[in-house]
Design a protein that fits this description.
This protein has about 140 residues and is an alpha/beta fold. The protein has one domain (about 10-135): Rossmann fold, CATH 3.40.50.300. The protein is built from 3 helices and 7 strands; from the N terminus they run E-H-E-H-E-E-H-E-E-E. It has a 7-stranded mixed sheet with strand order 1-7-6-2-5-4-3, with helices on one face. Helix 3 links the parallel strand 4 (about 80) and strand 5. The longest helix has 12 residues, at about 10-20. Bound molecules: adenosine-5'-triphosphate (ATP) and magnesium ion (MG). Adenosine-5'-triphosphate binds near residues 8, 10, 34, 41 and 42.
Length: about 140
């Protein structure tokens, strides 16, 4: 059983993400799980903004580009990746996500459950669930 919160709008989810960001110290891997449209990218907007790495509007879904990077040159980097469109383990390996772990950063991964990523970093898992309408449950766990 992890900590959980229920939000009732996209704005509440981004606001929760801003607060959650205060707990993050690089290096850390944030694994986002949850169905299509459950709010993974919306939550990431709040986390990235809370880290001061970009504005909410600058954070867009990396569904097609696979990896986005945010952050000022002398601040820590924030990577935001999405494995949804990765079809095979071969494609996953070709992405070279392991290279992201060369320098301490915050790595946020959508659809992380599709492929096992080997990482030496501490991990936090955020599970998002539809509760009907605009309600979402966010559950935090440390695995
Ligand atoms: N409580 C809420 N929290 C988050 N998003 C919400 C909420 N209520 C409504 N929404 C809406 O749900 C949608 C969530 O889309 P978002 O792209 O964040 O989901 P996703 O989990 O990243 O989907 P995908 O798996 O396609 O990447 C947005 O249109 C957002 O405005
Ligand atoms: Mg998304």
């Amino acid at each position: 059983m992890g900590e959980e919160v229920i939000t009732h709008s996209a704005e509440e989810t981004t606001q929760w993400g801003r607060e959650f960001a205060k707990r993050l110290r690089p290096p850390v891997l944030v694994l986002l799980t949850g169905d299509l449209g459950s709010g993974k990218t919306t939550l990431t907007k709040g986390i990235v903004a809370g880290l001061g790495a970009a504005t909410e509007d600058e954070v867009t879904s990396p569904t097609f580009t696979l990896v986005h990077v945010y952050g000022a040159p002398d601040a820590g980097k924030v990577y935001h990746a999405d494995l949804y469109r990765i079809e095979s383990f071969h494609d996953f390996e070709t992405l070279g996500l392991e290279d992201l772990f060369a320098q301490p950063a915050v790595v946020i991964l959508e659809w992380s459950e599709r492929f096992p990523l080997q990482s030496p970093w501490p991990q936090l898992r955020l599970k998002l669930e539809h509760l009907g309408g605009d309600a979402r449950r966010i559950t935090v766990s440390t695995s």
